Amino acid sequence: MIFKEKEEMYLFILTIAIILLSGPLQLSSSIYAFYDINTIEETTTPYELYKKNNSIIKDLKIALLTDGLFSDTGWGAFAYNAAHSLEIKYGYDIEFKENVAIPDIEVILREYANAGFDLIIAHGFEWGTPAIKVAKDYPSINFVIFTGLVKATNVASIFPMQQEATYLLGALAAMMSKTNVIGFVGGEKYPNLINIYEGYKQGAHDINNNITVLATYLDDWDNPSKGKEAALSQIIDGADFLLQVADTSGLGVIEVAKEKKIFVFGAISDQHKLAPDTVLTSFVLDVEKTFDQVIKMIQQGNFSGQVFKPGLESYKEALGEGIIYIAPFHDLENSIPDNVKIKFNQLKEDIINGKIVVPERYDHIADSVDGSNKN
Predict the structure, then answer these.
(1) What CATH number has the domain spanning 163-285+324-352?
(2) pTM for the complete prediction?
(3) CB of 122 within 8 A of CB of 65?
(4) Helix 249-260 crosses helix 224-236 at what angle (to 10 degrees)?
(5) What is the pLDDT of residues 61-94, one digit of tens each?
(6) What CATH number does the domain located at 62-158 have?
(7) β-strand 324-326 against 279-285: which pairing, if any?
(8) Directed axis angle between helix 128-135 and helix 105-114, to 10°?
């Protein structure tokens, strides 16, 4: 009996020691609080875990539709990756459709609405007007346009203030340019592209009012040769920094920048891997955070048909409303002087805190297209 008592005491002491060595454990109301996460993942999906703590959660049938390509390393790719992450997080089966011809947008929207989807995310500015038209016939379906400027009872648009991020890139280019000339290559002259360019130009001019900012709109999102030609023309005119926002056409811009050994800024996604010695940084849309907010809004019964205009955030998935951040400099960190980095970070904080305002400047477009459903 004595030995048994001692044995039990030793086991008790050993157990306490293991707990202390393992570090403090957070108490949880979950029955899985002290289970290994790998064990949980084998038997319980993230969706099931989420559902345990959200009694109002329901299954959602979601579609992500775009006229772009999911393989474009930019606009289409980042939306696909974000939606796929939420597919894993919530356990939803999300339907993906790419490369929709612009004239077919309304037909495709009706096709998915008829198929009984609860949420249709239309990824592209051109989807706005057709979505307003289709949504009137399907009042129980929620539509989200990214990026868009339309709204209705069951249609919300997200129009991120990307000019806040490109302001920073323009300022960075102006602080580092040796030629006093920088360039911008855009896919097409849409409101958000105009904002992006104007923010870039404002940032550059706030640092150096005498700097020249060249701009070229390609009217083509899927033509690397056009991007290459435009970039080469700007470099011949003296540009030693380029910002490209042109999907696969932008790959041509990056290629020329690499050949000519100048820096280029990536767009929408962190494009560092495309040319590690050339892409200095990128402005990135935190679209996973955005889609997550939309899903939670629907789950909570708070879907609101309005135009949301989130701005800059300090880093990916930072607290707050912002959904645009600047990617790390990666291996090019040492290419930027310390005083430039200090100024750059200060400008970032000033924008987030409202000390610097980077306004919207798109031309000839109404602030929103109101298609409110009146039943």
Answers:
(1) 3.40.50.2300
(2) 0.77
(3) yes
(4) 40
(5) 999 999 888 877 667 777 888 888 878 888 888 8
(6) 3.40.50.2300
(7) antiparallel
(8) 40
